Amino acid sequence: MTSRYIAVDWGSTNLRAWLIEQDRCQASRQSEAGVTRLNGKSPQSVLAEITHGWRDSATPVVMAGMVGSNVGWKNVPYLTLPVRLDTIGEQLTPVDDNVLIVPGLCVRREENHNVMRGEETQLIGALALAPASLYVMPGTHCKWVQADSAHIVDFHTVMTGELHAVLLHHSLIGAGLPEQQLSPAAFSAGLARGLATPALLPELFTVRAAHILGSLAPEAVSEFLSGLLIGAEVATMRERFSPQPITLVGGEALANRYQQALAAVGYQATVLAGDTAFQAGIRSIVNAMAN
User: Fold this and answer.
1) pTM recorded for the entire structure
2) Which of 11, 96, 151, 223 is most buried, taking the most CB atoms under 10 A from its CB?
3) Three-class SS of 34-66
4) SS3 content of the chain, % helix, strand, coil (to 5)
5) At what angle do helices 221-237 and 201-212 cross, to 10 degrees?
6) Cα torsion 107, 108, 114, 118: sign
């Protein structure tokens, strides 16, 4: 077992790093220098900055996320499903001295073309900490992942988070709105609508009409829209997955919204923090490297 290593979650818009010694996190750092925000710097120099004072020649750096994409440090090949999770750590791509990138996963079928980077590392950790047959990973692009006790079998991506942002900030739905506020009641109302009417196209304009006509508070449009989109997502995706053990992997606030949506259709889900899952996944990979 490697007793000291650095784990890096390097996405499009941000970067997080953890120094791990004896299986314990000794320090963490974060930066907005995602791979699309390097501002002319090389990935090597950004990594040197974020890990300053941590690295020596014997300390491996294991990275996952968009750093391995065609807009990242190096375009690392995807592994095609089905994939055994315990073999992912055997297929890392070196990009510098003792610096390695975890491969992403892909589905290549006529009815389903999909890719992920970063989530595969969380899945390795989730398999150890909160095993399930279905993993739901909320975020900008929510992943619904089917697994067995050792393999990732299939996954689908739903662009719910991105759609929410686009509609709220770049469409008529969000035009002229005041600052948005948290509203559990508005979220629940939107959720009920989305679960009942998952065919979204006829529903979207009603969000604008509702606040113009006084049925929806203008400062609660974001919350209602969030509920509507998540409800429609859950209603649609539950048709593809039978009831089974579910683990939600992600940030607490968003995972709790999905937990509420799943509970509304009779699915109970365990919540696992995304950072916890990621660190556990890197730990498994590093331990496999040492064996």
Assistant:
1) 0.94
2) 223
3) CCCCCCCCCHHHHHHHHCCCCCCCCCCEEEECH
4) 40, 25, 35
5) 160
6) positive
